[in-house]
What we know:
Layout: H1 19-25, H2 28-31, H3 35-51, H4 57-76, H5 88-100, H6 113-149, E1 154-159, E2 162-168, H7 169-194, E3 196-197, H8 213-219, E4 224-225, H9 229-234, H10 237-263, E5 271-272, H11 291-315, H12 328-352, E6 354-355, H13 357-362, H14 370-378, H15 384-401, H16 410-416, H17 430-435, H18 445-459
Parallel strand pairs: 3-4
Antiparallel strand pairs: 1-2, 5-6
Helix pairs in contact: 3-4, 3-6, 3-8, 4-5, 6-7, 6-12, 6-18, 7-10, 7-18, 10-11, 10-12, 11-12, 14-15
Amino acid sequence: MAGERACLWGGRFTGKTDPLMVTFNASIGLDKRLFSEDIQCSKAYAKAIARVGILTEDELQKITDGLDKVHEEWQSGDFKIQENDEDVHTANERQLTVKIGAVAGKLHTGRSRNDQVSTDMRLWLRTASGQLEDLVKKLIAVFVQRAQTEIDILMPGYTHLQRAQVIRWSHWLLSHAAALARDLQRLQDIRKRVNVLPLGSGAVAGHPFRIDRELLAKDLGFEDISLNSMDSTGDRDMIAEFTFWGTLTMMHLSKWAEDLIIYSTKEFGFISLSDAYSTGSSLMPQKKNPDSLELIRGKAGTMFGKCAGFLVTLKGLPSTYNKDLQEDKQGMFDTYDMLSAVLQIATGVLSTLQVNDSITHAALSQDMLATDLAYYLVNKGTPFREAHDLAGSVVKLAETKGCPMSDLSLDKLKSLSPLFDSDVEDVWDYNHSVEQYVADGGTSKASVMRQIEKLKTEIGLE
């Protein structure tokens, strides 16, 4: 009876499949998320084979109408997955057969699930990557907007987690926005390789019925067709690239989260997180924990494992399609789900946190101006290596006397170098310090504003 066929490959087999193997082999629990893309793919493919006479116009219309009805069932929640629906392709063809009868059996002519699933995944990933691109842009926009609004706030810049030089809070914000901008570029670049059509490659040897793959690609919105049928059916570069993109993006977000976790401690107190993105302790009433940030940091490790695991799977495969590739969808969906959630949480955290500018300013100390003192001497004609040593001598002298460098008398400074003069007082001004870094990429106000404008252009922010 129409619709009762157990699977798409049963003709060669006479023995029953072990029920445990049926469950083990099935991917419907995961790939049902591709139901819409699978139907979109099938409708376009039906048109392609109709053009070469495999389907009549009446049969094409029946298949198209039937697929639309199957799609409606999925969307309404009325679609019932059956025990023998091992994947979304089987489920959709079974239900199409229920709707329109034996003509549904013509749809798979010349097509393999090998090129079908790869096409479905590319359609899904094309949409998903666009959604993630929007989320990355929204997060960068918050970085940029805060950097512009809070440009006058100064704070210590750190290397080796030691106070190093005076910077603008905005400069710190934009350092993380710059990393995310590279992630945005990578995601956009990946989409170019995602947007290549494998459909029409068959199982391995190609398509025997002279379908127009270029026109099929146009129908599905692909920019190009795959070059070689053997390569395209086993190609999962786009999943490897996507999971690596997720890994690198999560690494950048983890570093940002780690900075904020440190800055939110009472030992630093630079920022205060909103209650909306913090939790408490079941034992200690005073605790306000940065769990949103800690989870971002923790999930980065999970993402790393998914990328590495999938690459190991690919590494051991012979050419073309192998069942190992069924594991591809787990990594693809998990990457999207994780990044989608993390990017939204990160945007919420950043848009609601409070920067405590009085504390960041109080954390500045004159030893952070030692490099500025060396630059002062360089501007007087001293070679940098000599100036570096002299500035170090000033630091040591101040430490010995237990006072800040600005309290050292001009005579004391002149005892180290006759080039010191009354204008050395400018060096002790923190605003003067940041304003000397005027080259592109620096922490002066003008340089920071140029960074802001460039990022605005990249994300299309007016």
